[in-house]
Design brief:
The protein is an alpha/beta fold and 635 residues long. It contains 25 helices and 14 strands.
């Protein structure tokens, strides 16, 4: 009996000694790293109760918000999933990295790594369940597990801190426009969780019709289903005994999955919900900045580009110098943001270069291709009931002025909105002298951002691929370029949209040594055919340019100048060329040409029969349908 008690006493002593040694280890400076979980979802704006939406039914997120901080001024870097997810996971703008075109595939430079890599190196168990969609092949070693079964519970060593990502795709736009998916995702909603579409408030840029209200209702009900999913994850943290040791971040990848929201740079497409819950163990370490009171609202500007550096900061790590975002939580923070930036580039089969800068009150938008309509025909959104309803009501001349302006055949080169007075961004203030100062200020901020971040959106995609072969990756294309070269591209691109009364800079730029400058000069000349007669000889010479994008831009300009046979002959050759993105650009120019493109019907039919790039097939099919007077689509 005595031996038993002595043995028990010895074991208790060992346990006490272990505790002392553990305490000494922590007090010696080794950080106690918190667990971190991302509860992410797709295609929703802040239509959530805790963000002030009175129609939302989101009890779980509202409950989380009571012990968390809400960030109502959070924005994504794009209005569509893959480009902004690329920025989120790398901490680098998609337009800097070369991942800005939807469904492109870039090569990362060796020193740019998805940020979970740094967490793993610091001892974290990192899981992703399960969407990636980064526009580059995920390097080996980023995740301990990335699958539909990935979970923090799977870590072999339960003492290890974890970073776990969970993504809900039930509220993706397909949940609105696909009857089967909508019914499946919302199948467990009770009658009290359903919405009455007649009581909902529609944005002024949508027609008030039963079909439109049905889509708007579905958006809310899908969010309620997402809220239930989020609630289960939060309960799992509690049941597993790690809730009070885990930082929770809830966010969406971009705005609601409907036209004039998803893919666009207005608040409707880029403003997202962000809720961050910090356990007491983590807030205690924020000695020099503290942490806002639980349940508080922090109105500072946050970009989704800031998520990566914030997570690293909270994990006790120093964000890499190449990160372009800033941590908004943690110690030793840089000054708060004054602006958030966003970019739109190729959306599936259509190019449309748009840039945005927003501060707390104003949004400035630069349309680099104003000669294109707001609603270009794109196969995916055209299958959406809301888009079809917009087309139908517009054809009947039944749209309100706020809705009708987005059906225009052209866009203004610039847009400026006062979000305080005009939260839906339907009143463009560019021509209002009262806002001239804000226009000039934000225009300057945008032009500086293009150079500072080395915006590759101004380089045609076919030219990116040509230069990537030399630079080894897209990030390097402009990395070593002289600032004057980037500025020259930017300046000519801005001249091309009609800026300035002097036509001579565009004429001179047609002979520039840089193919991208020549491209934008030819685009500008084509945009102003009434002033371009003197450039016809030079444009004809440019049909032999080494860069396919220049040849296509020159053919487009010649088409505008009435040189139809020469231009169509060149476009016919480009449509059969080796470079896929040049073929797409040629197909788009043919499509925009309208009736004069009829001689190329055989070549367009060939695209349908023998074309590996589905986006070229879509454009060719659309052109043929228009010329035939039909409206069929292809997937």
């Amino acid at each position: 009996m005595t031996f038993r008690f002595r043995a028990i006493g010895f074991l208790i002593g060992l346990a006490l000694l272990a505790n002392v040694l553990s305490f000494d280890k922590a007090s010696a400076g080794e950080p106690v790293r918190p667990n971190i979980i991302w509860i992410s979802c797709e295609d929703i704006s802040p239509h959530i109760g805790c963000f002030g939406d009175t129609h939302a039914i989101t009890p779980n997120l509202d409950r989380l918000a009571k012990t968390s901080v809400r960030y109502p001024n959070t924005f994504t870097t794009a209005g569509v999933c893959a480009p902004c997810r690329s920025a989120i996971i790398t901490g680098v703008y998609q337009s800097t990295l070369g991942t800005h075109h939807m469904r492109c595939q870039a090569q990362l430079p060796d020193f740019i790594k998805p940020f979970p890599t740094y967490l793993k190196e610091a001892g974290y168990y990192c899981t992703n369940n399960s969407k990636q969609d980064y526009q580059f092949k995920t390097p080996k070693g980023v995740w301990d597990e990335s699958s539909k079964k990935a979970h923090w519970k799977n870590r072999p060593d339960k003492s290890k801190p974890f970073f776990a990502v969970f993504n809900f795709n039930g509220c993706h736009e397909t949940g609105i426009n696909n009857e089967g998916k909508y019914k499946s995702v919302t199948s467990r909603l009770t009658d009290s969780q359903r919405q009455d579409p007649s009581k909902l408030e529609l944005p002024p840029y949508y027609p008030d019709t039963p079909m439109m209200r049905e889509d708007w209702k579905r958006n809310y009900e899908l969010i309620t289903a997402m809220d239930a999913w989020a609630g289960k994850l939060i309960q799992e943290l509690k049941d597993d005994g790690v809730y009070e040791d885990t930082i929770i971040m809830f966010w969406s990848d971009h705005g609601v999955g409907l036209p004039r929201a998803k893919r666009w740079l207005y608040d409707s497409g880029t403003k997202i919900p962000l809720v961050v819950r910090m356990p007491e163990s983590a807030t205690d370490s924020l000695s020099d900045v503290g942490y806002p009171q639980r349940g508080a609202i922090n109105k500072e500007l946050v970009s989704s580009l800031d998520f990566a550096p914030t997570v690293l900061k909270l994990a006790g790590l120093k964000p890499p110098k190449h990160f372009q975002g800033r941590a908004f939580l943690g110690n030793d923070l840089s000054p708060k943001r004054e602006y958030v930036f966003a970019a739109r580039d190729r959306m599936d089969e259509r190019y449309d270069i748009i840039r945005s800068v927003r501060d707390q009150r104003f949004r400035y938008i630069r349309n680099y291709e104003p000669f294109k309509p707001y609603y270009q025909f794109m196969n995916t959104p055209e299958q959406n009931a809301t888009m079809r309803e917009l087309r139908r009501v517009h054809a009947d001349d039944g749209l309100s002025p706020a809705a009708a302006q987005f059906m225009a055949a052209r866009k203004p080169p610039e847009e400026l909105y006062d979000l305080t007075a005009d939260p839906h961004e339907v009143n463009n203030l560019v021509a209002d002298p009262q806002f001239a100062f804000e226009l000039n200020r934000l225009r300057g901020i945008h032009l500086d951002w293009v150079v500072r971040t080395r915006d590759m959106g101004l380089i045609p995609e076919s030219e990116i691929e040509r230069r990537e072969a030399v630079a080894k990756n897209r990030y390097n294309i402009l990395l070593n370029a002289e600032q004057c070269s980037i500025e020259r591209i930017r300046n000519v691109a801005n001249l091309a949209i009609g800026g300035g009364s002097d036509f001579r800079p565009l004429e001179q730029a047609l002979r520039d040594e840089d193919s991208v400058v020549r491209y934008w000069a030819a685009i500008g000349v084509g945009n102003m055919p009434d002033r371009a007669a003197t450039t016809q000889t030079q444009l004809s010479k440019m049909l032999g340019d080494e860069a396919p994008c220049v040849r296509i831009a020159a053919a487009r300009a010649l088409l505008k100048l009435g040189q139809t046979d020469v231009a169509l002959g060149q476009l016919k050759r480009e449509l059969a060329g080796e470079q896929q993105w040049a073929r797409l650009r040629a197909a788009i120019v043919i499509d925009e040409a309208g009736e004069v493109a009829r001689p190329l019907i055989p070549q367009l039919k060939e695209c349908l029969a023998n074309q590996p790039n589905k986006y070229i097939t879509r454009v060719a099919n659309r052109t043929l349908n228009v010329l035939r007077g039909t409206n069929n689509q292809v997937k």
